[in-house]
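Deviations from the work plan: none for this task. Representative record:
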Amino acid sequence: MKTVYVDNNATTRVAPEVLEVMLPYFSEFYGNPSSMHLFGGQVQKKVNEAREQVADFLGAEPSEIIFTSCGTESDNTAILGTLDSYPEKRHFITSRVEHPAVMNVSSHLSRKGYRTTEISVDREGRLDLDELKESIANETALVSIMYANNETGVLFPIEEIGEIVKSSGIPFHTDGVQAAGKIPLNMKKSTVDLLSLSGHKLHAPKGVGVLYIRKGTKFSPFMIGGHQEKGRRGGTENVPYIIGLGKACELGKKHLGEENTRVRALRDYLEAKILEKVPNTLVNGDRNNRLPNTLNVSFEYVEGESILLLLSDLGICASSGSACTSGSLEPSHVLRAMGVPFTAAHGSIRFSLSIYNTKEEMDYIIEHLPPIIQRLRDISPFWKDYLKTQGKG
Amino acid sequence: MWDYTEKVKDHFLNPRNVGEVENPDGIGEVGSLACGDALRLSIKLDEKKRIRDAKFKTFGCASAIASSSALTEIIKGMTLEEAEKVTNQDIANYLGGLPEEKMHCSVMGREALQAAIANFRGQEVTKEDYEIVCKCFGVTDKDIERAIKENDLRTVEQVTYYTKAGGGCAQCHPKIEAIIERVRKEMERESPPPKPDKRKLTNIQKIKLIEETLGREIVPALKADGGDIDLIDVDGSKVYVALRGKCSFCPSSEFTLKQYVESKLKEFVSDDIVVEEVKP
């Protein structure tokens, strides 16, 4: 069976070019970059090259790049490392639609006695900037707002937010995991102080991430250990993965244009065809400010897990914000924060594309999705009720 | 991804008895769009008051659809008195088990069946004597009590898996804890009547069936982890086994025994089986 992988906001395929540059660093050039011998030194050189590649990708200085183990570690490090630097400030601001790597840190802080504020979003998933302005206080230690939402792809106006936050002299962190590689990032012209990035969302492997820390930002390390990463993150460098991530960033910069032209066109095509062929379908999130690769659609009166399993049976890999897919009993916190009605929230499906997707794959989805929705609606007690209200039953 | 049995997958991909029976004698509707799953069951009786036909419509995940399908298959041909005794465990067992987090799907099936029977008898399913404990999912104290008794539940988490109660804002958790404590005390006082055997087995048949079940369901999984199991003795409903290999010094072996071996033997041999480990 063929696989149509449209779950790239969950994880991506490792680019063949990335894998190729990694392979020699497992059993051939396996030295420790911290060693004094040349065998380790040559590895150190490659790690530095990767750091330059990442810096170039982010429009940053190499010294502003810290390698971590994943996006979650970057988020945790940014938040807890900053708060540790401002022990007298006991207020943390974030949004209601963050990834668990930030959201659950916020709940953790709240249990630890911090005051936390979670800024709301509107029906389109747009952040309430007035609420943000009103929330900022003297005791605010850090504001952490994601760049792009993983479920809906909605982009927040990060520079506008940054202006608000920085005008009060507060450090600003953004979870850039979903944005990196999909929209241009330039830290030199940005108000962002700290930015998290994850390797496996941009065709590097799982198990490597980056935290960008603007020069001059107060920060305490989260992982305490050796002198690696200039003492800002202990632990022997994950050399092959770091080298892979460097390559992925180089490729990411090269493919940025394609993401925003060809991939965007594929997404728009998929969206238009689904809306055309499946009645009672709505797009979740601000369609004018969205990642080029993400489509989140709700099919009313059906449940997401059922859709996913039937898609999976045809080799189509997507994801859902329904309750049943997560093991929790409520649908996605993002859709709930947006006020998506229950008729639609349980039946949301996210398609997230990459440069490896083709028009044929979109056509395959467009061919098979409508009968799946119809089949489940035929089983659903609410569909017939709905048709009756429309005078069609 | 959920670890669904082949039977669940089959009943999800090829659901039996979808639709609504014509001129139904009873209709049971439970769940809601807000809750994320809902089931509408309709039944038709024959002149002897046996369920001649049963059909369902379900909004929900794969296990909700499979549980509904299983329910209709189970109750067809039953008298109402027999159908009344169907528990959520019967539905789950029919499907070869459900992930614990999904047990509420089987409870929804049982509730729909009760509602349909009550509907036939012209009884109103009133909730006036009940207290809504979980406001997020509209679960009553009676629903929770019944799930605890029928499924031998001990924790709030389990109650959530089986009834959804407490799965939203979590404010009702202290109330659920109090219900668990009260009901379990009641259960201890009135020691439950022994459940009838699934099949009337002679001792020899029983031992053979236990051996077969161990060999088919349990040994392969244990061997995959470098362990093994030997049947030592069978005394009534007590089954004495000894763990071998890695299992014999595995700290989670007690868990392995209780949760895994016992549940399989209960499923395939008899509901009252208790497994005890013989230490080497």
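The first strand of chain A starts at residue 4 and ends at 5.
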